[in-house]
Amino acid sequence: MTIGAILFAQNNTTVDYIKLAVFAARRIINHLDIPVSIITDNTQWLVNHYPDHPFDTIIEIPIDTTPQQKYFNDGSLASQKLDWKNKSRSSVYDLTPYDRTLVLDSDYIISSNILKPALHNSHDFQIYKNSFDLASWRTTNEFKRINQYSIPFYWATAFVFNKSEIMQCFFDLVTYIKSNWLYFRNLYNIEHSVFRNDFAFSIAIHIMNGKTNGEFAVDLPGTMSYVIDKDILVDIIDDKIHVLIEKQNHPGEYILSKTQGIDLHVMNKLSLSRFIDGGTGV
Amino acid sequence: MEVQVSKGFLLFAQNTKAVDYITQAYALALSIKQSQKDITSVSLITNDPVPKKYQKVFDQIIPIPWTTDTTSTLAGEHRWKLYHVTPYEETMVLDTDMLLLEDISCWWEYCSNYDFKFCSRIKNYKQEVVNDTYHRKAFIANNLTNPYFALHYFKKNSPAYEFYKVLEFICNNWEWAYDKFASDEYQNWLSMDLAAAIAIEITGTHEHAVDSVSPLEFVHMKTPIQGWSPIPVSWQDTVPYVLNTKGELIVGNIKQSKLFHYVEKNFMTKKILNKLEDLNNGS
Q1: What is the CATH number of the domain that holds A67?
Q2: Mutation for B interface: A142, A206, A207, A212, most B CBs within 10 A
Q3: Is A212–B253 a contact, with Cβ atoms under 8 angstroms apart?
Q4: Whose CA is closest to B70, among B171, B198, B163?
Q5: CB–CB of A6/A103 below 8 Å?
Q6: Nearest CA in chain B to A150
Q7: Partner of A62 at 20 to 30 A CA spacing, among A2, A237, B7, B48?
Q8: Do residue A150 and residue B253 have CB atoms under 8 angstroms apart?
């Protein structure tokens, strides 16, 4: 059985996702010791700008000509509206070269080997349901259920799946939900109009579970830690990550926080990008 | 040789001006016939007239014995009589404003190890186990157990008889019993749940009557325990629901399991009733 990781990277005018993916891939190889492939719509950019990239395979997908847009925050005071090309996630089943695949967002910073057991067990599908916000004051209800009236929330940020019939069904279902997003959005009472993989995955898992609690999706080891894009990454040194966490009721003020040996979803891609370029994300 | 004992569900219905409990009992009986594999016998205790169409789903319709004028809001003073009138060796008591959606053979199996057993765990429609601190203040304040009379089991035997005798005493002297055992967060009406909790306290049958590993549970649709803010008046106005042609009840896109306590009386519409009848007729 072949085991490897997949990162998606589709640049917009401001965020170089390919750069983030190159950085993330090196950490995956370092901590989890598995090959990493990239799915991107711009192989040329990768080859030209990162000729020493660590990718095992480069998988080219067509450019999304009708991308969604959303606001990307850069700390608690700055934000900009940019393209958000997130619709190719469900194609990973067909595109992955591996029998068992770890899929990660390119802003998911691996700093431990906690995911290793998930690569070597027999579960068809493992994903994070439980998460931990480094800012303990923030409400996390939006990451517990897709809304207070509805179903449990799952993070499409990190998951492990097998090539199997049931997983093909699952990804077909995610594709179907994506194609009929307006219907599912209304059915599940989702406020935001933009398509989110987290929501589509949550709905698909719910349906695969027979619309009740079930065991289709097994929890990944540990809890997914994250900082949102209103926080600012300072730096990443080996397995230590420094982050400025936005202060409660004081926009523009932050508290320094440090993690060590913990994988971290750093949602502020702009500060992550600055760090990779110049050694500090501030 | 295995001795077969009679087992069945027992429902208590006493219509009020506002609520047709007989129709609720009929709907519940239909859902039992539809969902249960082995034990499908249902008997009804009532003094109200039961329409002919409804009668066929009940194995027995039993009059409420030793009636007096009702004074409490929940007609609780009659419910201690369940033990004395049940036609079964093993009885599962259900409130009428419930629907049984899945087979509960394993509950019967579990309960058969006990003389009586109360449900002490509820869930909301999201299938989350709920610690109901909203409605159960008296139980918590007085360190009582947490039984739900709406779902309980008993055998026809001496321990269950003794328990029900104590329950009778509490129902008939509930103000005294509340003063003695539930004086904090005092409830000024006879609640069968609180009466049962006090009976458990008096008889010292805590482990026997309730336990944390018991499979007995139901989905309770009182709005304060659904995890909503602000708390709405009606769950039916808050989340969509449908009883589909497979007999699955989907609330807020979540399939409801086993026993569903809908609470709101207007849930039992003609449409739902027709669907239950269709399901029973195999159409």
Answers
A1: 3.90.550
A2: A212
A3: no
A4: B171
A5: yes
A6: B252
A7: A2
A8: yes
Is A182 in a helix, a strand, or coil? helix
Q: Select the residue from B101, B125, B126, B217 to test the A interface by mutation, using most A Cβ atoms within 10 A.
A: B126
Q: Taking CB atoms and an 8 Å cutoff, what residues of chain A touch B227? A: 148
Poorest-confidence range of A115-124, A189-198, A228-237, B31-40?
A: A189-198
Question: Burial of A109 by CB count in 10 Å (0-12 exposed, 13-18 middle, 19+ buried)?
Answer: buried
Nearest of B137, B100, B75 to residue B261 by alpha carbon: B100
CB–CB contacts below 8 A, A to B:
31
DSSP A145: B
Instruction: Please compute the mean of the pLDDT values over residues A105-115 and round it to a whole number.
Output: 97
| CB within 8 Å: B127 and A212 | yes
Provide the β-strand partners of residue A241: A236, A259
Q: Is B127 close to A213, i.e. CB distance below 8 A? A: yes
Query: Any idea which architecture B7-122+132-221 has in CATH?
Result: Alpha-Beta Complex (3.90)
Degrees to nearest 5, angle at CA B201 with B196 and B203: 90
Segment A228-245, tens digit of pLDDT? 999 999 999 999 999 999
Question: Quick check: A149 and B239 CB within 8 A?
Answer: yes
Our count of domains for chain A comes to 1
Q: How confident is the model at residue A213 (pLDDT cuts 50, 70, 90)?
A: confident
Q: Which chain B positions have a beta carbon within 8 Å of A211's beta carbon? A: 248, 250, 253-255
**Minimal C-alpha gap between B140 and chain A (Å):** 27
How does pLDDT run across A44-74, given as a tens digit for each residue? 999 999 999 999 999 999 999 999 999 999 9
Q: With beta carbons less than 8 A apart as the criterion, state whether B62 and B85 touch.
A: yes
B126 contacts in chain A (CB < 8 Å): 145, 151
Flag residues of chain B having pLDDT under 50. Answer: 71-73
H or E element that contains A253: strand A250-260
Instruction: Give how far B125 is from chain A: nearest CA, Å.
Output: 9
Enclosing domain of residue A211: 3-278
CA–CA gap between residue A92 and residue A160 (Å, rounded): 11
CB A71 within 8 A of CB A80: yes
* ipTM rounded to 2 decimals: 0.82
Buried b / exposed e along B42-74 (16+ C-beta atoms within 10 A): bbbbbebebeeebeebbbebbebeeeeeeeeee
The pLDDT of residue B76: 66
Q: Which residues contact A135 (CB under 8 A, 6 or more apart)?
A: A227, A228, A231, A245, A246, A248
Question: Is the full-model pTM beyond 0.80?
Answer: yes
Nearest by CB to A210, from B227, B239, B255: name it: B255
Residue A141, both tokens: 């209800």
Residues B227, A150: C-beta atoms closer than 8 Å = no
* CA-based nearest residue in chain B for residue A187: B253
